[in-house]
Design a protein that fits this description.
- The complex is a heterodimer of chains A (254) and B (356).
- By secondary structure, chain A is an alpha/beta fold.
- Chain A has a single domain (24-242), classed as 3-Layer(aba) Sandwich (Rossmann fold), CATH 3.40.50.
- Chain A has nine helices and seven strands; from the N terminus they run αββαβααβααβαβααβ.
- In chain A, helix 1 packs across helix 7.
- Chain A is globular.
- In chain A, 54% of the residues are buried.
- Chain B is an alpha/beta fold.
- The chains are: A alpha/beta (254), B alpha/beta (356).
- Chain A binds chain B through residues 41-45, 47-48, 54-55, 57, 61-68, 71, 74-79, 81-83, 85-86, 103-104, 107, and chain B through 23, 25, 49, 51, 53-55, 57-69, 71, 73, 87-88, 91, 95, 197-201, 206, 208-214.
- Strand 2 of chain A pairs parallel with strand 9 (210-211) of chain B, so a sheet runs across the interface.
Chain lengths: 254, 356
């Protein structure tokens, strides 16, 4: 009997630095599987963010650039404009994309840049040690919201997918999760669709992935999955928010 | 091809194309917006890329992304915009990518003004962004020289895999002068297989490339900084450019001045010569690397009793002049930095008052 499960070629053999129970590894693997299945590793350029995935380039086997904090969509724009034949994706966390890089992602999406963004939303800054993010839940304790996020003081968590879907430019915008197998299957399908739209030159494509951060949530990996499912997913509802194949102008948003 | 009359900003845009660069990203800011306006119709004509970014911050990284693919790319901006791009410039230098930045300086600090200035000397030559990096900085004194420097900038950026900056001022951008685009300054992009992230399929080796400026291991970061330092030392050996003026005479005062300011000084020197007063001048064409030896030699001349750094800033280049004169004679500064360009008469008065 042959091998039925193996490491994707697009994924390197290096051990990752991610914490136990972190879902970055799952998201990396899904991206790598999609790149293998589409046979595009030789013409793909990834862009690493600043955040826990800053070293993402160590875990993939194709060309990679490393951006400054929040600037990955601008770099991806630069690449796609001068080399539209390359397949380009940014891989960004919620501090990177939804806070310091909000301007760049909105304008890249609004220009309809033909690249793909994989957005890891775990409701907290990871690499810097668990500070409050724009996606942190009301009442959620972090190292900079020790009494819990006070929405009267700092506002409500930003729903990035819904925000981007409100733009009038055609795009593929979806929110999925990687916390359990039943979600992972759908997440992979969404990532593949996102890359396919890019390769077809159709639109900007964006896959938000509701993820875990047990270390900075102060939970065990099992508790983290439970918390994500009970707290994050009801607020960050899963599904497709925009699809270039459907009618324009709001009616396509679920 | 003969000379044509062109506005500085438009000539700078055309020079990029003539140099073989078909990729341009920018954000509007006075007094350089005409570059973007010009290239917004010219780039499509030549099959090039024009994109107006949402901010100078974003434009800086569009440049980085494109440069990291090994494609020739440039942008133009003015002082406050260059401040915003300085983050990206630091990353581009750290990651060793070639790119060309043009700064058509206006007065600062803050929003400052929109008239000509040379107040970004420190920003261009001493940093701007964070970390140990340098830019190769060229300062044109005419529209023709701006064209030539832009055309030279691309192969130089590739030779050193480092950003090159053209440091002009509002007058260079706004005035019209006759220009030609020298055929001999056209160049082909250099090889990039061993570093550019343009897809593994393009390389025989099939090895993947990484463009990054992160080195968490302190030994590796130090090594990267040593590689950069070696490049900057090589620039000092190979790229110094300057123009001496009236330095064969027995001048009692040496002027060091660059860009638009140096043209005014040249007129003042001619007028003073008619009065029987000899003044010499060193005009740095590269601000980094600075013409250290030329300034030292000129200040060391027996007849020379003083060096004057004349600049449209509150005294920035004067620090380099002092450093290079090395105590051979006293060094003074004269300048203005509100947007007014000092007149030849003012310069002549300054010279006379320092002789009496």
């Amino acid at each position: 009997m042959g091998k039925t499960f193996k490491r994707p070629e697009a994924l390197s053999e290096m051990d990752s630095h991610y914490c136990p129970g972190c879902t970055h590894g799952v998201a990396h693997r899904l991206v790598a599987e999609v790149i293998d299945e589409l046979g595009i590793g030789g013409r793909t350029v990834g862009i690493a963010p600043v955040g826990c995935a800053v070293l993402a380039y160590n875990y993939f086997t194709f060309d990679f650039q490393e951006a400054a904090h929040g600037r990955a969509p601008a770099m991806a724009t630069g690449i796609k404009r001068v080399r539209p034949d390359l397949v380009v994706f940014t891989y960004q966390g919620d501090g990177d994309l939804a806070s310091i890089g909000m301007g760049e992602i909105i304008h890249a999406a609004n220009r309809g840049e033909k690249f793909t963004t994989v957005f890891i939303n775990n409701a907290v800054y990871g690499m810097t040690g668990g500070q409050m993010a724009p996606t942190t839940m009301p009442g959620q304790r972090t190292t900079t919201s020790p009494f819990g996020r006070d929405v009267k003081d700092v506002g409500m968590p930003i729903k990035v997918s819904e925000l981007l879907a409100s733009l009038q430019t055609p795009a593929y915008i979806t929110r999925q999760s990687v916390i359990k197998p039943k979600y992972i299957v759908k997440a992979k399908k969404a990532i593949k669709t996102a890359f396919e739209y890019q390769i077809e030159g159709r639109c900007f494509s964006f896959v938000e992935l509701v993820s875990t951060c047990p270390t900075n949530w102060g939970l065990t990996p099992v508790e983290a999955v439970k918390w994500a499912e009970e707290t994050l997913i009801p607020y960050y509802s899963l599904g497709e928010f925009k699809n270039p194949g459907k009618a324009e102008g709001g009616s396509d948003a679920k | 091809m003969g000379k044509i009359l062109m506005k500085g900003n438009e000539a700078i845009g055309e020079a990029g194309i003539r140099a073989g660069c078909l990729n341009y990203f920018a954000y509007p800011i006075t007094p350089q917006s005409e570059v973007a306006e010009y290239l917004s119709h010219r780039m499509p004509e030549v099959g090039g890329v024009f994109l107006q970014g949402e901010s100078e911050v974003a434009v800086g990284y569009m440049i980085f992304g494109a440069a990291a693919c090994g494609e020739r790319v440039f942008t133009t901006s003015s002082s406050p915009g260059i401040s915003l791009m300085s983050e990206a410039i630091s990353y581009i230098a750290g990651a060793q990518c070639p790119a060309v930045f043009v700064n058509i300086m206006r007065g600062g600090p803050g929003l400052g003004g929109i008239l000509p200035s040379q107040a970004d000397y420190f920003q261009a030559t001493k940093g701007g962004g964070h970390g140990d990096y340098r830019l190769l900085v060229m300062a044109p004194a005419s529209v023709q020289e701006a064209v030539e420097m832009v055309m030279m900038a691309f192969p130089l950026a590739e030779k050193y895999r480092n950003p090159v900056m053209i440091l002009g001022d509002g007058l260079i951008g706004q005035m019209m002068e006759p220009v030609e685009f020298p055929e001999n300054l056209k160049s082909e992009p250099s090889k990039k297989d061993d570093w550019a992230t343009n897809g593994m399929d393009t390389r025989k080796s099939k090895k993947r490339n990484l463009v990054k400026s992160l080195f968490l291991d302190p030994v590796k970061l130090n090594e990267n900084n040593l590689i950069l330092k070696e490049k900057y030392e090589r620039m000092k050996r190979e790229e110094v450019r300057f123009e001496p003026y009236n330095t064969d005479s027995d001048y009692r005062i040496l002027i060091v001045s660059y860009g638009t300011m140096s043209r005014v000084c040249r007129t003042a020197i001619d007028n003073l010569k008619a009065e029987g007063i000899d003044v010499g001048m060193i005009r740095p064409q590269t601000l980094f690397p600075f013409p250290e030896d030329a300034v030292f030699q000129a200040a060391s001349k027996k007849s020379c009793g003083m060096a004057l750094s004349i600049e449209m800033s509150m005294g920035q280049m004067v620090e380099d002049v002092e450093r290079c004169v090395h105590g051979k004679c006293p060094v003074k500064w004269y300048g203005k930095c509100g947007g007014e360009v000092p007149t030849p008469e003012e310069i002549m008065d300054v010279v006379r008052s320092n002789l009496s």
